[in-house]
């Protein structure tokens, strides 16, 4: 059966959604000079937010899960590394269930130390505390800029109406970071390396959970040269959190995203048509299935919709690492997972670079599935 067209969702975090388009229509034109949210908060001290930060689309209308409902699965990665064959098999089964049922999970007993995570959070805080003029040195507009500092989601498209500032850096295969504050690069390099080691172990186990050879995903994605994106999202306390959004519902590009935060809650994931609050304990990695693992698994594992809310009490910071294929690698469903008529390839082939560039220009919307009734991937 021919695959003929494509519709794709805008990613995060790292990374827009249908809600984004609705927000654009509802928001007044942004003032000529776009400032950071941090600078805005510090300069005004207002009890209200400017109208161009109003995010109206059904933000509080969708059901929120109660605390007693399902909880995000927990994966003990140490059992994958040094457990008995029976323990390894059990964790691989748990991973399969987590990826198919939730699209996310918590990882415990990993080698990203709590002290390293705290140092990374502190270094990003120092960066965001730099004078605005110094941070402007790192402004970028293109998704392929190796260092990008900015505000909103995609200011050229979204009118910068999200209550978020960010810094994004390519960490692999080439490492790029700002040269300030002092010590930032060294901490970021170690933090990125440790997270990548965790993901390497997880991808081997996920390959096996799909019935594939252990190194399948690594080879198919050319992961040795895969793009790793280090991103910090900074959400200042908001005087009217019921009107604003940190990042609206979206999905992440890449294979897996690892995430930590500064202990302030705000992350929500969508599960069984409800939004679940995710509180990430200290020394735990929150891991999300991303678009290209969904593609490779031909939809068996789903990337998860998630969003970031804001509050009026404390600044929230999250640090995400998107672990993707090599930029020029064509990603497609694994042939072993494409069998009978009902398991035909459900996704259109394209390189990771093409995916990112189309996403950046807003030419990808909704999901990235094939649609046999259309003929153009726009």
TrEMBL record:
Family: Belongs to the iron/ascorbate-dependent oxidoreductase family.
InterPro entries: DIOX_N (IPR026992), IPNS-like_FE2OG_OXY (IPR044861), IPNS-like_sf (IPR027443), Oxoglu/Fe-dep_dioxygenase_dom (IPR005123), Plant_2OG-oxidoreductases (IPR050295)
Molecular-function GO term, any one: L-ascorbic acid binding
Keyword Nucleus on entry: no
Pfam families: 2OG-FeII_Oxy (PF03171), DIOX_N (PF14226)
Annotated source species: Castanea mollissima
UniProt cross-references to PROSITE patterns, sorted A to Z: FE2OG_OXY
Protein name: Fe2OG dioxygenase domain-containing protein
Keyword flag Iron: yes
Domain Fe2OG dioxygenase per the UniProt entry, residue ranges: 225-325
PANTHER family with a match to the protein in the record: OXOGLUTARATE/IRON-DEPENDENT DIOXYGENASE
Domain of life of the native organism: Eukaryota
UniProt keywords, alphabetically: Iron, Metal-binding, Oxidoreductase, Vitamin C
């Amino acid at each position: 059966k021919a695959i003929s067209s494509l519709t794709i969702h805008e990613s995060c975090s790292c990374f827009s959604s249908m809600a984004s388009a609705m927000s654009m229509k509802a928001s007044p034109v942004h003032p000529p000079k776009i400032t950071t949210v941090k600078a805005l908060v510090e300069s005004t001290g207002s009890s209200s937010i400017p109208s161009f930060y109003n995010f109206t689309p059904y933000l509080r209308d969708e059901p929120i899960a109660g605390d007693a409902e399902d909880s995000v699965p927990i994966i003990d990665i140490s059992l994958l590394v040094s457990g008995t064959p029976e323990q390894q098999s059990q964790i691989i089964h748990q991973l399969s269930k987590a990826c198919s049922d939730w699209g996310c999970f918590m990882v415990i007993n990993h080698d990203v130390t709590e002290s390293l995570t705290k140092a990374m959070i502190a270094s990003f805080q120092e960066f965001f505390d730099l004078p605005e003029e110094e941070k402007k040195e790192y402004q970028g507009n293109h998704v392929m800029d190796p260092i990008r500092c900015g505000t909103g989601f995609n200011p050229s498209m979204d009118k910068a109406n999200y209550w978020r500032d960010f810094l994004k850096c390519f960490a692999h295969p080439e490492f790029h970071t700002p040269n300030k504050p002092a010590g930032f690069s060294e901490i970021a390099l170690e933090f990125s390396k440790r997270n990548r080691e965790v993901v390497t172990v997880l991808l081997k186990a996920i390959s096996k959970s799909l019935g594939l050879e252990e190194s399948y995903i690594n080879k198919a994605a050319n992961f040795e040269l895969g793009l790793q994106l280090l991103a910090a999202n900074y959400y200042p306390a908001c005087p009217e959190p019921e009107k604003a959004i940190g990042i609206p519902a979206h999905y992440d590009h890449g294979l897996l995203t690892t995430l930590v935060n500064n202990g302030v809650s705000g992350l929500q994931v969508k599960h069984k048509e409800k939004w679940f609050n995710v509180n990430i304990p200290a020394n735990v990695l929150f891991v999300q299935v991303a678009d290209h693992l969904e593609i490779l698994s031909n939809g068996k594992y789903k990337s998860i919709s998630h969003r970031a809310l804001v509050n009026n009490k404390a600044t929230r910071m999250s640090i995400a690492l998107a672990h993707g294929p090599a930029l020029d690698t064509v990603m497609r469903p694994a042939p072993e997972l494409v069998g009978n008529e009902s398991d035909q390839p459900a996704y259109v082939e394209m390189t990771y670079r093409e995916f990112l560039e189309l996403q950046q220009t807003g030419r990808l919307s909704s999901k990235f599935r094939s649609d046999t009734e259309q003929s153009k991937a726009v």
